[in-house]
Amino acid sequence: MSTNGLSAAAITANLKTRFVGQRVLYYPSVASTMEVARLEVQKGTPEGTVIIAGEQTAGRGRLQRSWLTPKGNVALSVVLYPTLAQLPSMIMLASLAVVHSIRVVTGLDPAIKWPNDILINGRKVCGILIESDVRQEKVQSVIIGIGLNVSLHPADYPDIQDIATSLSQESGRDVPAVDTVRTLLVEMERLYSELTAGRSLYEEWRDNLVTLGQSVRVSSGKNVYEGIAESVAPDGSLILRDNKGNHIPIVAGDIMLRTPGSV
Q1: How many domains does the chain have?
Q2: What would the pLDDT profile of 171-210 be if each residue is shown by its tens digit?
Q3: How far apart are CA 230 and CA 247, in angstroms?
Q4: Which domain does 39 fall in, by range?
């Protein structure tokens, strides 16, 4: 058992899921849960396998940025085997599962910054990374990586204190990491099952986006766009309206809200 209560046994005990989280590999400290998950996929690990770390020393977020996961926070990766049609919904599934679990465990009201950052009161509390292996029009695997600030004290990290927050900081109390993880896995399976049954996650994901209607600056590859984040398409791409009235679809990119006080 770790100091924050996380262990494979604590997570799986009477967990109300059929497959997500029924196999958990817990590491007190690991370089990257994504790396371990990739190795598990190569071994043919069952769908729903979870790799979780009490501390992650070489984690990576989107765009190869480092992701800080000190002790007391949560870094986990979940292995799924969706269809090609379900692939665009994976980021919606992951971000909504995080939003739902934060609401259930803390009563806080998080929002999603396109495409996959979770904010509370304008500050980042969670980052999500999706890695997919697609060959010959078939999805071999998807690994969902989630880094969630549960008990981070932003003041201890001057580089991020203005843009980051944590569940304990926002709620003003200790938030049990194990309860947060268990709720997250239940929510992830529920949404995945609904997706498999044919329900679209698009509208709920869109309605939880804080980005829409905002003035934004988007870096996508070598291009930089500025304008209003007008809408999102069902495939998850952002529709930007520039100052000439042109609508520009952006599949992936790094976005900055240009509203004062936002990140």
Answers
A1: 2
A2: 999 999 999 999 999 999 999 999 999 999 999 999 999 9
A3: 9
A4: 8-207
Q: Region 17-28: what's the mean pLDDT? A: 96
Q: Which residue has the tokens 């396998």?
A: 49
Looking at the domain assignment, is residue 3 inside a domain?
no
pLDDT of residue 63 exceeding 90: no
Distance CA 242, CA 229 (A): 9
Q: Is residue 262 part of a domain?
A: no
Looking at residue 41, its pLDDT comes to 97
Instruction: Tell me the one-letter amino acid at 8.
Output: A
175 and 245 in a single domain? The answer is no
Question: Are 161 and 196 contained in the same domain?
Answer: yes
DSSP, res 154: G
Distance CA 82, CA 151 (A): 32
Enumerate residues 6+ apart whose C-beta is below 8 A from 217: 224, 225, 226, 255, 256, 258
Of 181, 103, 187, the residue nearest 146 (C-alpha): 181
* Residue (of 114, 117, 116, 118) closest to 240 by Cα position: 114
89-133: pLDDT as tens digits:
999 999 999 999 999 999 999 999 998 899 999 999 999 999 999
Q: Which helix (H) or strand (E) holds 33?
A: helix 33-42
Say if residues 216 and 118 touch (Cβ distance below 8 Å).
Answer: no
Burial class (CB in 10 A: 0-12, 13-18, 19+), 83: exposed
- What is the predicted pLDDT for the residue at 59? 57
177 vs 12: CA distance, rounded Å: 14
Helix (H) or strand (E) holding 117, with range, is: strand 117-120
Q: Which tens digits make up the pLDDT trace of 127-167? A: 999 999 999 989 999 999 999 999 888 888 778 788 899 99
Q: Are residues 228 and 124 in the same domain?
A: no
Question: Which residue is it, tokens 């992650």?
Answer: 56
